[in-house]
């Protein structure tokens, strides 16, 4: 289909389309003449449920109580044009993750963060702008494009950590923004490739980063279905991780693009942190090995 990518982009904004059936339902209920027509009221109710249900299923209920103990993991797109190193460092230090994956990290920014953050182990990808900071030993780390690239840049960081005596594989990803057909198809091929690759990896696995896909994307849903990974943000009251660099055209666009997918862990709690001058909020989760 010629405009498949455009339709898919509209699906990414699914919560905003919920406004239409909500308003229609309110009109049907508010206008006596319409309210008396049971067929129209029933249809309006059914449409409202069908449209809103996917959003409610994702968001869930607020997670109350204190933050539990466990392994804290954070994925954070710091935005390549963000010059505010102090704010970035404060956002990270405020969450104090044990494992930190960053997207859009330039070489100068990497050097700055290495001097400001107290992590004994780190790695930055070659040919792209992803980075990993860890309190756990990094046994190995590589830059792997999984055979899918855009303009020669790779978007994937693959590492194996030693976590309390057990190996944990980390795949940090950042597919391209699907705003043009070419990038749309590359993102989808990358998600399919990551899903298949995760099946071949044994043991505990964490795939995290800026997926540039919402939970309502059929391509993201296919990724989760094939990979059989658990999304740590599911039903954790995560409304949005992007767009928080306020401009007139994007002020009201707020969708969840950043995810932490796991296998071999129980998700104890997940939340979003401070932007630190980025257009993304970091997503933070506390995990417990199963």
Automatic annotation (TrEMBL):
The chain crosses the membrane at residues 13-31, 43-61. The keyword Mitochondrion does not apply. One of its GO terms (biological process) is DNA repair. One of its GO terms (molecular function) is nuclease activity. Its cofactor is Mg(2+); Mn(2+). Residues 74-280 form the Endonuclease/exonuclease/phosphatase domain. Keywords: DNA damage, DNA repair, Hydrolase, Magnesium, Membrane, Metal-binding, Nuclease, Transmembrane, Transmembrane helix. InterPro entries: Endo/exonu/phosph_ase_sf, Endo/exonuclease/phosphatase, TDP2-like. This is Endonuclease/exonuclease/phosphatase domain-containing protein.
